Amino acid sequence: MTENIFEQIKKINDYGQEFWSARYLMNPLGYIRWENFEVAISRAKESCKNSKQNVDDHFRDVTKMVSVWSEAKRKIKDYNLSRYACYLIAQNGDPRKAEIALAQTYFAIQTRKQEVHEQLVEDSKRVFLREEMKEHNKKLAKAAKEAGVSNYANFQDYGYMWLYGWLRQKDIHAKKRLKPKDAILDHMWSEELAANLFRATQAEAKLKRENIIGQDKASKAHYSVGKKVRETIVELGGTMPEKLPTPDNIRESKKRIKDEEKKRLG
């Protein structure tokens, strides 16, 4: 049992996502009978559910046609499994099997590597978008000033209100349970930052394009942009910004990126 066995039977779908066929995974894990392996799969699915993960994202039911004799074929049940699903199956497999013990180690290590990689990808996106927000907030503030906005905080509230389901900046701050000096933009994942970046860039463009003048008109324009962004999220089936989880301060993302760079450089 080596890492190569699991890598050899790994497949890649049309979207570039890796997966394992349960039928091909069964023998390397020491199982001969499908019925026995399905018991481990059922326990793994329950573990997935208890971990608040979407089971269908990791255990996808599929049906395959196999030859039985001559040219005759029959349907058999199978699963396309994510790496996390394979890890859970190994954790819920027969501990008396040496193959299971080795698989537990392999998938635990690989799953952790994948988690670290995904975290770094998210950290990089988050840091990039936060810097973009800084620049475009400056441009939005300048455009608002040129439009005659004197109360910028109120102007900003109008943009947030529709995007966040009538929550003002202070309400968002409270909902995220932030400290008084914490900036709400420093506690957003990339998805939430991207929505706000779109709001800021489009509000600036609208003020300039329509030559809007006056505090009231500018605030209403910002309000309409926030409304449109929220409607777009709804149409796409996305999660509303106020319901997205709150991450730690973006300083932690920067620290993880810096630490990884140090490791890479030795």
Characterize the structure shown.
The chain contains eleven helices and four strands. A four-stranded antiparallel sheet has the order 1-2-4-3. The mean pLDDT is 93. A hairpin with a 2-residue loop joins strand 3 and strand 4. The chain folds into two domains: 92 residues; 144 residues, no CATH class. The protein has 266 residues and is α+β, with helices and mostly antiparallel strands.
SSE diagram, text form:
Elements: H1 3-9, E1 10-12, E2 18-21, H2 22-26, H3 34-50, H4 55-58, E3 59-69, E4 72-81, H5 83-91, H6 98-146, H7 152-163, H8 169-175, H9 190-209, H10 215-235, H11 250-265
Antiparallel strand pairs: 1-2, 2-4, 3-4
Short key terms for the protein model shown above:
4-stranded antiparallel beta sheet; alpha+beta; 2 domains; elongated; 266 residues
